[in-house]
Amino acid sequence: MVSTPLKTADLDSLNMEPNQSISAYGTARSTVTGKPLSGEELRKLDAYWRACNYLAIGMIYLRDNPLLRDRLTPTHIKNRLLGHWGSSPGMSFVYTHLNRLIQKYDLNAIFLAGPGHGAPGILGPVYLEGTYSEVYHDISEDEEGLKRFFKQFSFPGGIGSHCTPETPGSIHEGGELGYSISHAYGTVFDNPDLISVVMVGDGEAETGPLATAWHSNKFINPIRDGAVLPILHLNGYKINNPTVLSRISHEELESLFVGYGYQPYFVEGSDPETMHQAIAATLEHCVNEIRSIQQEARTTGVVKRAKFPMIVLRTPKGWTGPAVVDGHKVEGFWRAHQVPLSGMHNNAEHLQMLEDWLRSYKPEELFDAEGKLIPELKELAPTGDRRMSANPIANGGLIRRSLRMPDFREYGVKLEKPAHIEVENTKPLGVFLRDVMKENMTNFRVFGPDENTSNKLQAIYEVSKKFWIAEYLEEDADGGELSNDGRVMEILSEHTLEGWLEGYLLTGRHGFFSTYESFVHVIDSMINQHCKWLEISREIPWRAPIASLNLLITSTVWRQDHNGFTHQDPGFLDVVVNKSAEVTRIYLPPDVNSLLSVANHCLRSTDYVNVIVSDKQSHLQFMNMDEAIKHCTKGLGIWDWASNDQGVEPDVVMVGCGDVLTAEALAATVLLWEHFPELKIRFINVVDLFKLQPDTEHPHGLSDRDFDSLFTTDKPIIFNFHGYPWLIHRLAYRRTNHKNMHVRGYKEKGNINTPLELAISNQVDRFSLAIDVIDRVPKLQAIGAHAKQALLDQQIECRHYAFEHGIDKPEIVNWRYPH
Asked: Where is the Xylulose 5-phosphate/Fructose 6-phosphate phosphoketolase C-terminal domain positioned along the sequence (predicted)?
């Protein structure tokens, strides 16, 4: 049912006028000339592609009669028709031709499906090359297995309509669009022999993350890295709208990708015979061009920015499907996006159209009597690990090597007394990361949006500079820390960095990402998607564990003296808490030694998203290394040196969670003892946020008995928290003493403030906390009026001082815990 060919140019030349927009389909036209396929090769490749398309339609429609051995009846059709046809034939078309090149050149290649709804176009060839049946033994390569294969697609208890983790060879689901390019580039860092072919949907190409990710080609070192071959799939439409890039002129489209630094090649048309020749010639040319670039760099040892190839493939949406349904255009239009034909159970005309459509692929020529793909087609696919669906790189845990780790204890701060010295918390972490990188120079990278120096991690540049392969200026030598052999990846796009890191981790390597707390929200949804991927992957026996995604959030809300209100938002923690307890961890280490202990643990872990919150400024230090290790192992605990309730019931429980918030809570206890020396205070610090949840809700959660022992069952709890206060209530709402838990945190009050003034505005300062205790402890309510007034006076004085001098009072800045 291919649409009627329209006027086109010859295969051997694009032959296009300036500003000409291409919307016609028919005989192929392509930039690369030649007809590399013999008649026999062409026949077999077309048959293999027909088999892929047949399977794609079968997945959407059929629950029985998988090979059309009988006439199609309504009982053979699924009751709910779900899935997406539109981009599937284009993707299986490319996949089929990549298999040819893998066999011819023994390529090490993987395939990333960018279009969000193109899974049928990938699942088909994955099944045909045998991998699917190898990992799912009940989905056998015969008629019964094919029946199960069809039925499970978009069916309860089966698989989704994207390239989910259940899809062998997949590392990118495409459920949320925009990340395929950055994921692809992450896979080839430090993978010199890998070619990652990424199919980019033209709807996906309209997203901001993808538009920026094209610049990833400027971060490839052709000596040590592999190559990405992007294929922009222009099929013209999204769900029911045209796509931008399909409606601009050829000249403008070519200029766009030349401007991005690529060498674009075009393949356009719909006639299968000429399109097979065109894509075969173009893909082979691109593979050889990539190899030539790499060979030159690896032979000469000269690292320079290369103009890597990319392909623009224009085919009709829903290619080879029904041309017209009920008088409406389908093939080559948005109506082909999802399910082109519906109403099978009560529309005999549509049922007949479906049968004709399925039979147009001639399944009787493709599958033998048992339902297996015939041998002459089976041999077109690579074997073993060379199959893109079985490449171990796409199941990165199989090739993951544990990091060689230095002893984190050697990087800590020596401490004689708690809360007596200040240290920049993240600076020693930078030294630790430096040595982690030094020991793992081919499988560990650090990622950050131009902020690693700002975040005090600059020690990493002592062993590896920032990667830079673009133009250098003379002044760059003065502190620029740039190198075309660098392993620190910096670009201002958090989206691109996160995509690189995820691609790197999913293919068996390790990484560390730091960013400002206010900007981590940029990648909220990417973290969401990665969490979902990990959660499903943990349930799939053949998916091996990958290194955890380790994310340092710094430059935090409480130290935004100069940036102000726009940079004050600790809400990323709320986003992470929404995800599965099986894959999320949140740590708020209050000092250097606890930060190092947490970082060491996170770098050794697998299959988690680890979020570490630690500010980069100078902060009081509370624990020596041995104490920090014990404290972090427990996740929370009583600080005996800051408590005076030993052997008796406390009058109040004071809790600090976060560096600044812990210091203010400590200062509040000292103020209270100055006014009420006999007041019994239990001081608790929380590092592992999920300890607050019951153990029935999170693996790290405390049992109710242990929680009650620490926090009491009836005493006031003043909880000073780094983030939004309601998050603590959400985690602890089922606890016995929740009604007495009074959480203080950020309440969207701030601007250009001194640290203490910002704390006062949000009622997390020492004075507000001490007053809160007076109001909550029954025996202080009658005798505390004078103390409350004195504390209020001090608070007012501090505010006035900040407004007059622009800094906090010296006794605040230099406060130390008395011993």
From this structure: 616-816
